[in-house]
Design a protein that fits this description.
Layout lengths: L7 H8 L4 E6 L5 E5 L3 E3 L2 E7 L3 H8 L2 E7 L7 E13 L4 H11 L10 E14 L6
Antiparallel strand pairs: 1-2, 1-5, 3-4, 4-7, 5-6, 6-7
Length: 135
Amino acid sequence: MTDPQLTDGLRELLSAPNPCVMATLRKDGSPVSVATWYLLDDDRIRVNLDADRVRLQHLRRDPRVAMTILSAESWYSHVSIQGRVAEITDDPDLSGIDSLARHYTGEQYPVRDRARVDVRIDIERLHTWGDAAAL
């Protein structure tokens, strides 16, 4: 396992509300990918999931995650991340999903009647492409 050091340029890219696709592993080992919101949180990636999503079951069973974060300005610039779930915590007051929603939309998350969880992912490896490679 490597310990990638995030440069200031990579932190800036990862701190923006960019498109992101996250892959998890099903019970049979096959990958499944889903578009998702994310935040850079103290050099970890944070996502927030509905507590009843199958993707959460995947992460509890196998904590390995792959993500591709595309620069909103140029999708040819991206960062591919391989990581592992470090922690899963309940989000009872929806502050976690609200922070993601505000980051992407400027508003609080509109669905207020579903249980949510915050998932923090340690970055184990990363690969950059395009303009992101210069960061």
